[in-house]
Write a structure and sequence with these properties.
The structure is a homodimer.
Chain A: E1 2-10, H1 27-39, E2 45-47, E3 56-66, H2 72-82, E4 87-95, E5 107-116, E6 129-131, H3 137-146, E7 149-152, E8 167-178, E9 181-188, H4 195-208, H5 213-222, E10 237-243
Parallel strand pairs in A: 3-10, 5-6
Antiparallel strand pairs in A: 1-3, 1-4, 2-3, 5-9, 5-10, 7-8, 8-9
Chain lengths: 260, 260
């Protein structure tokens, strides 16, 4: 049995999230089906993040155990042959049995794109949340910075969150202005259910002038979901990267990539 | 009768190009249909560029004459209400009768995105041409620069081109490296049919090592379509902007945009 680490990119629009669901098209279901086509055997895929319906990924990470003798580079191409157009394996490599995509992750990095436009923007609406009202960007930036550090994020967790411990360490929380877009960049050792989307929904309340910086700080310390803003739409959110200590991807590939 | 200047963004994937065709879904057809819905009358829309099937636009410009008394800002919102998700009016303003979207254009700016990746990239494949082979970028950049200036571009025109004069002035022709992408940026006073896509197809031949810089220069001076490379796929191409002398868009809007 060999363990393979997969890095995945997908357009979340057509998926009912990552996790296997009966009767729904999910990232896990589509990838496990491709694994079965390629290897002839059913395999369970374990991903770092169970991204929600509509959330995109540029760097989701998963691992899978297989008896297949295919070198990782060939497995990558075979999987991409079977996978539909909206999901792709962008890196595959053999890792040790001690590698676990989910439990081994040190941190994850997400980006939420806010697009300031009065009109629909067909080239970007699929990947950004569009806002036409004026936003108080400096106030939003001040609030974004407040989330850095170790906090109890109960206020920014969905009431459907099933974990007991709501303390997380946010390593980066920054709102960057990029032309007509705002990019909320957030890296943490872990995220509660809907945490990024609730953070963005609350930052937007500040941007609209519905909430002051002080009220935002109060919402964080309240440990009460009702103190924060609404959950921002999924389409603006992308899982950019999952980071590991001694990341296997920082090493050169063990096998030469065959010429094509 | 009032003349309205429209700036348009569209995802070209679902359109059989811009120009009206019997039985085909085109940008012009969809926009004229929306005009009819909004104003109750048929109007002819004149665009600066007849973009091909699959080509995108961030800044196509068109003009239309209408008897409707709707202020331009309201017309914009009404059109966007009727337009499908893959096309949008991003600016609308009343202009003088002497404004002509096509004949008045001083220059147009296109971008062609080349994405260097071995794997499919679901978040970008819709808007970029994907290449997995190594590319000789400095040689491509040298060749891109050779297109600047006034030349007879017969070698870079489709044999279906119907114009007589193949001389055009290229004001900018530059290949920019941006991470894993290459952006070919080209601005000219006019373009022949398929000119940008043939230029990119020929630059890629240089990048692959199939053609030297000298052969590229020879292809330009040959005035023979067969001397140049193949036509690159439409999906990588976006019409970024159409520029006008005394651009009406550089003036403040004549009407206050009503509060929403």
């Amino acid at each position: 049995m060999r363990r393979i680490m997969l890095t995945l990119e997908y357009d979340g629009t057509g998926f009912c999230g990552w996790q296997l669901q009966p009767d729904d098209r999910t990232g896990q279901a589509v990838l496990e089906e491709a694994m079965a086509q390629v290897t002839g055997a059913r395999s369970r895929v374990h991903a770092a993040s169970r991204t929600d319906s509509g959330v995109h990924a540029e760097g989701q990470v998963a691992h899978v155990d297989t008896d297949s003798a295919l070198p990782a580079g060939r497995l990558l191409r075979a999987l991409n042959y079977w996978l539909p157009d909206d999901i792709s394996v962008i890196d595959a490599r053999e890792v040790g049995e001690d590698f676990h995509a989910r439990f081994g992750a040190a941190s994850k990095l997400y980006r939420y794109r806010i697009l300031r436009s009065r009109s629909p923007r067909p080239l970007r609406d699929r990947f950004a949340f569009r806002v036409w009202r004026e936003l108080d960007v400096p106030a939003m930036q001040e609030c974004a910075a407040l989330l850095t550090g170790t906090h109890d994020f109960t206020s920014f967790a969905s009431e459907h969150s099933e974990v007991e411990n709501h303390e997380r360490t946010v390593l980066r929380s920054e709102l960057i202005e990029d032309g007509d877009e705002l990019h909320y960049m957030v890296r943490a050792d872990g995220f509660l259910y809907n945490m990024v989307r609730i953070a963005v929904g609350t930052l937007l309340e500040v941007g609209y002038g519905n909430m002051t910086v002080e009220e935002f700080a109060g919402a964080l310390s309240a440990r009460d979901r009702n103190a924060a803003g609404p959950t921002a739409r999924a389409r603006g959110l992308t899982l950019l990267a999952v980071e590991y200590p001694n990341d296997p991807r920082s090493a050169p590939l063990r096998e030469p990539r065959d010429a094509e």
